[in-house]
């Protein structure tokens, strides 16, 4: 089990545990703080993130900014990867294809789901993680396909001997 998933399972059942976990994610990746993500569900192959509509994420017409929604999508895909990629492997985002479907006039929920979950191999492989950004009525406002390159970790000099 990944250390991220272990931490989630440790914190999430406790009062304010999901908030503390989400705060920890933002400590590790500070730019995510711009959307104040609240991770509400996490398991291998699945991550759900909420973000409140507030002035800092508004665009010029007062709706949830499309690029802020992309940031929510990246949080969801990244935390999914942290919970799903085994400790023997590493991952890095290498691409994102985004479709702006509708204006978001409410808070949003980002849902990243990779089912079935691929088995990492000995060679680098690209995992395409679909992410849906939904408004509070469940209507999609942004959809994204985030490509993650998953590869075995390089062996260190100590591990080689």
UniProtKB/TrEMBL annotation:
Pfam families linked: DUF4442
Domain of life: Bacteria
Matches recorded under CDD domains: PaaI_thioesterase
Name assigned to this protein: Acyl-coenzyme A thioesterase PaaI-like protein
